[in-house]
Design goal:
alpha+beta, twelve-stranded antiparallel beta sheet, two-stranded antiparallel sheet
Length: 304
């Protein structure tokens, strides 16, 4: 397994998403113009590839003094005095975390800032990981996963005795692209997939994308990212698109695969190190074995 990716949303003779980003690096990607063997004369340009969502857990045990401190801050967060609530904060390794007033079973505490959401087990917990954490999409996009995970590992090490490396419970891989092919013309029957369910979506009666295998251990989304960002602006991502030369009238589309823990384990991926070494293999599995887009040509009506 290696970092090079040669992924294609695999198509039949006239592949609409026959895109080939050459490298999967951390952080912002340079643009690549894809040699087109797509439908008719349609052109597809890869803007960037990356990890959009990442959920990790660490085995270990909470330090006793941290348990006392977190319980104190949690009580402040639960206080009826408005002056107490802003005091429910903890500064760790350059990050000022808000301590939530309650945990989420089976975790007793939650620390949250703009980059990390960290759930922490109570002192003495036997079957629960020390922490379960989510890294923000913005941090993954702007800084890259390896550095974001290294910082998270450093933060977790201040909370307790850590007995494992970062284990992956979910990873979402994405590719952003431009295309002049009318994606709205794709039908559900043209997707060849191991998933049972395919949903087609519109927004204000405008085609906005597909969700394939929603809720499963593996799922995929093909959607209009520009349209989504009208509802939920992401200035950092818009800046990246601007730097890559995307014009205001152009629509950025995203193909995104979500891999949950069970599917990752079946593919031999447990730790973040495993994931980072297998990005290319994951893309190939998603776009060659789990999902293909097959649109027969005018001369060949067979869906392969």
């Amino acid at each position: 397994m290696q970092d090079n990716i040669n992924t294609s949303a695999k198509c039949c003779e006239d592949g609409v998403l026959d895109t080939h980003p050459q490298q999967f690096h951390s952080g912002t990607q340079s643009s690549n113009t894809v040699p087109s063997n797509c439908i008719n004369t349609s052109q597809t340009k890869i803007l960037r590839v990356g990890i959009d969502s990442l959920y990790l857990s660490y085995q270990g045990e909470l330090f006793e003094d941290k348990s006392i401190r977190l319980n104190q801050l949690k009580k402040l967060a639960q206080s009826n005095k408005e002056t107490d609530i802003p005091l429910a904060q903890e500064y760790i390794k350059g990050h000022l975390f808000e301590v939530k007033d309650r945990g989420r079973h089976p975790f007793a505490f939650i620390l949250n800032d703009n980059h990390y959401r960290i759930e922490i087990a109570k002192l003495g917990a036997k079957r629960t990981p020390l922490t379960h954490a989510q890294i923000s999409s913005e941090l993954l996009t702007c800084q890259g996963a390896p550095l974001a995970v290294a910082v998270l590992t450093d933060i977790v090490s201040t909370l307790g005795i850590v007995t494992s490396s970062a284990n992956v419970s979910r990873a979402d891989l994405c590719v952003d692209f431009l295309t002049d092919y009318p994606l709205s013309s794709i039908t559900e029957t043209q997707w060849v997939t191991r998933a049972r369910d395919i949903e087609r979506f519109t927004s204000s009666r405008v085609f906005s994308g597909f969700v394939i295998g929603g809720g499963g251990n593996i799922s995929a989304r093909l959607y209009n990212k520009s349209l989504e960002m009208i509802k939920t602006p992401r200035p950092y991502l818009q800046q990246i698109y601007n730097e890559l030369g995307v014009l205001p009238e152009q629509q950025v589309w995203r193909l995104e695969f979500q891999f949950r823990r069970e599917s990752l384990r079946q593919l031999g991926i447990t730790s973040f190190h495993d994931l980072n070494s297998a990005l290319g293999s994951l893309w190939r599995y998603g776009t060659e074995q789990w999902l293909r887009l097959c649109i027969p040509s005018e001369t060949d009506k067979t869906q392969l």
